Each structure stands twice: as structure tokens, then as C-alpha cells.
Fold this protein.
Amino acid sequence: MEKNIESHLKETRVFKPARSFAAKALVGSLQQYRRMHRDSIRQPEKFWAREARELTWQKPWKKVLEWKPPFAKWFVGGKLNLAENCLDRHLQGPRRNKAAIIWEGEPGEKRVLTYQQLHRDVCRFANVLKRNKIRKGDRVIIYLPTIPEAAIAMLACARIGAVHSVVFGGFSADSIRDRIADCGATAVITADGGYRRGAIVPLKHNVDEALKGETTIKRVIVFRRAGNDVHIEQGRDVWWHRELEYVDAHCPPVALASEHPLYILYTSGSTGKPKGILHTTGGYLVGIHSTSKYVFDLREDDIYWCTADVGWVTGHSYVVYGPLAAGATTLMYEGAPNWPEPDRFWRIIEEYAVSILYTAPTAIRAFIRWGDQWVKKHDLSSLRLLGTVGEPINPEAWMWYRKTIGGGRCPIVDTWWQTETGAIMITPLPGAIPTKPGSATLPFFGVDAAVVDAKGKEVPPNVGGKLIIRRPWPAMLRSIYGDKPRYKKQYWSEFKNNYFTGDGARRDKDGYFWIVGRIDDVLNVAGHRLGTSEIESALVSHPQVAEAAAVGRPDELKGQGVVVFVTLKSGVKPTPSLKEELRRHVGQHIGAIAKPDEVRFAEALPKTRSGKIMRRLLKEIASGKTVTGDTTTLEDFSVLAKLGSAEE
Ligand code: WT7
């Protein structure tokens, strides 16, 4: 029989929302959260209908939910337009002249688009799409840097009912080609180039490479961003700015069925070929609007900054659609956090008086590594709320974030969700739910999450198991594009009619969720199942460690042995005695069972662009194999080369 995942990390610190924060918050007490959550679970359709009524529908829905497991339809019969909800809806009152997007390019350019300006730009570009024969239902690849035109292109597609698939600007020609082929896209929207760490990424060139040979693409629209030389293929490629000369700004939002597809976003997961996660219109909008409002507790005067690239789901839900649907001011930054120097983020926060910062644990660990002096140079007193997403955050990184960035006064929302869930699922509400470093705390409204054993039975407190969601939610994926059997198998077959997240977790006695990482990554050492995140957290709590990744390798005696890859803080020397010390350190924090068999120092860890450590690759390296399998989501290939010779 399969054993439960053991959990050894004990974190006892609790931080209650400050009274001053709670007083102004949308949800201001734990009791209020509990009451609302209970009601939302008893009568989910009532809860979601109320949320949906805050939005603009061209035609009201007849039925909130139609659930034929594993296929859900939300707001059946309703018609709406997402771009209308993000733009037109705000033009009637004072939001008309409010900043919708504040943007800073990596080289330092600044742009502000008010809601009215953004509306006009989206309408004009939507007319460009129509002019280029892009129609409702057509698939369009967007391959752009994080510039306002990325948001404009997404919203323009949504306005006419074209289905976008944003491909992260760091991906190669091969990744673009695969995605085009998988979804049968007919157009690409790209730029000549984008900036990353001072260099120009040749986006248009990559598109040209991807389109060599047979392709379904008929049109490429090119935005001039970096001014680098590009090839223009006559009859196929057109310049964005030239096209604008032919269109006006009148473009009514098309009434789309609630289940009309909005976008496809490819996610690699840890194994296998990338999956095209399909999201649709009505439910998705309701999900991201509701979570943006409650989780970030958005106020009219906030400057909200989510640092994600538009190429991943956080960029979709919480850079573009969520904040704009809520009428907020969303800040976009194009480049790297350490360009030209490691204080770029803090410089931006000071300059624009950012009040909400939403970033990833991997970035936070990099900041810790670069040193507090970069933070101390800047006034961060405008911040009132911090968020993280992407992977479990180590308690020590959480504490640093709270103290050094938040000045001890900002609540932290550690938000658990996935590309598949579309919207935040497990999270603190900042004015209501006391936080514990390293825990995503409690489920959002309407989310029925549980930790179960292999048979699907809920496990007792503090016993590890698999994280499942027991009922559909509005922003959930509707399928894997073109592959319903895989959708069924991947998410709904392990536990009948329950969504399996692929994550391991435990709940503590207060019902708080502690995510221990992907089940595929769980180690089995001498019959003990250990979450990689716990070993990593123990390592990161050592003062000289910046980041760590734990993986298993086959071990005749124990089944699996533990190998850890460790990067050290600036200036720390990698010595054999430090290795020994780190082994002891893990032993002390977790127990002898988790003591690494081998400690390897590395300059950097292989990561996806969303900042997730690619343990699958490390696993292969740790067991002395050469790296095989899909590496298209790897951010920086040189890291992999260096790891092969990771020993000092
Ligand atoms: C996986 C989803 C959701 C947008 C970012 C990544 C891990 C995400 C947390 C968190 C612990 C987290 C999970 C999840 N994850 N947020 N707050 N605490 N783990 O989206 O690439 O689809 O990855 O990221 O393992 O399943 P994604």
C-alpha cells in the first residue's frame, strides 16, 4: 500500500492582520471569512451568481452551472465580452481618466495609458485584426515582451472572440512551432525584438525560424519595439504601426457565449509534451475578478504590481485581466530584476509608489542572495500588501520578505493556484486570515479543497497526502486543447469526479494548507515519503544558503537517496566542511532520515521561466544520466551545461 507523505517541518509563528488593515478591508475578520466560505460551499451557485452580477453581461445567463463530470459549463446561456468588462465598463465614471497601465521598459522608457486610451488602442488594434481576416474562434499566437501591446493584443483578440495563445518571449523557435501546430493558429503577433538584461531578444527572427517549412500561419503582425533589423516576408508580414493607419477606433465588443474559448496557454508540467490549457470567457472572468478584489483587497488608489511575465498564467490573470476587470492600475515592467543593478524592483516601487507587490519565491530568494543593501537604498513605505505565487515559499524567505520588503507592516498573501485553475484557489485574505510563514492558509470562496490518501479518503491533521478539489469552480480549465481523453486522465481519473492537482500537501490542526510540492517530486527514502520543499526549506534556513533543490536518486539500500543542489549567498566559499555542516543542518531540522547523501554546490539551478526549479533535469544529473526529455521550458541553457560539472 502506498504510504502517506510525511511532514516534518514545524512552523509555529502566526501573524494576525493588523487592526488598521482589517478595518478597511473588504473582508475584515476570520469570522466573516468563515461565514462567507461556509455559505459559498453550501450554495456555490448563489455565491458565484452574486459575484457575476457585478460584471457586465450582454445577455443574462439561464443556469449558473452545468456539471457533467468532468466537463463544466458556467453561466450557461449568458453572453458577454471580456474586453468590454476590462475597458468599456470603466468609461462611464471617473475611472475613464485613471491609469489602467503604467509601464516601464527595461532601458527606462515610461508610458501611462488611461482606461480611455487603452480602450481606444484596443479598439483600433481589434480593427487591425479584422482587417487581416482574423475572425471569431481563430487561434492567434502572441509572442511579445511584457509591453502594453501584449495587453492590447490580448484584449483585442478577446474583443472579437479570437482565441489567443501567448508564448513566453524567452521560448525558442521550436516551442513556437510546436504550439502553432498544436492549436492550428493562423496568425502571429510579435515584435522586432525585446530587451532582456540589456540585450535584444530577436523575437521576429525566432518567428521566422518557427515558420520555416509547412505552417498554418497566414499573417504575422510586427510591432516595432527595439528597432533591430528584421526580415519582412511580403504577403505574410505587416507592421503594426502601418496597419493602424487604415483603421478607426470604433469596434463594438462582440457578444460571446459564456463558454466561448478565451485562450490556450501551454504548460509543460514536470513530464511529457506541453499541454494546451483551455480557458473560456464567463467563468474565467468571474473567477479572476472575484479573487483580484478579495485577495489583493484592491482600493481605488492602489498602484498594483504583479511582476510576472505576460507569457505565463499569472501574467494573464493578475497582470492583465484581473486588475483591469477590477478597474485597478496595473504596473508592467519589461525586463530583468537585476538590470542595470539588483535594485531595479525597489527603484520602481519607490518611483511609482507601488502599494501592492505580487512576485515569486524564486525572485525573493534571489533578492536575499544579492543582499539587503540594495533594498535599503530605497523608500518602500508606499507598500501595504505583499503577495507570492509559484512554489512553496520557505519560511525564512517569507520572514525576510515581511521584514525587509514589507517593513513588518504588510500582510503577505501566499497564493496557491495553477495554470489549470485559472484563478487563485488557496490563499489568505489579507484583512481576515492570520498567516503562518510557508502556508497558503485557507481555501478561497467556493473552493472545496482537501488532502486525501491514495483511496481518496481525507487524512487527519498533519498527515500528508494528495491535494484535490472536490467540485468545479468558475475559472477552471475546460479541457486540454484538442485532447479530452488526456484532460480526463490527467486531472479527473485518480479520484472520481474530483480534480487532482498533482500536488502533495497537509493540513494542520487549524485547517491550514501546507503545500509540499509536486507529487512527482516526492522522495521515498527507506519507506519514508518526504516532500522536496521541506528539505529545501531546511537548507535555505542556513545563513549561507541562497537556494536549494532536493532530488532523489536510486539507492540500493534505501530505495532513494537524497541529493541536494545548493547555491550559496554572494561571497560564501563552497568548501567540503560546509557540505558536512549542511548535511547536519538538515538532520537537525527534519531528522536523520532526510540527511542528504550528497551535497552539490552549483552556481545556479535550472529553472523554468516561471521560476520553478526543473527537478526532473536535476534528477537525471544526480543519477549520472545525461539529460533527456523536454527542455523547451528551461530559461537559461548555460545553467544546465555548468551543472554537469557542478563539483568544485
Ligand atoms: C504549481 C502550478 C499559479 C501560477 C504560477 C504557476 C506550485 C504555485 C504555489 C504556492 C506552493 C505553489 C504548485 C502548483 N505552486 N503556487 N503559493 N505554494 N506551491 O503556475 O506553472 O501552473 O504551476 O505551482 O506545485 O501545482 P503553474
Q: What stands out?
A: Residues 311 and 506 are 31 Å apart (CA to CA).
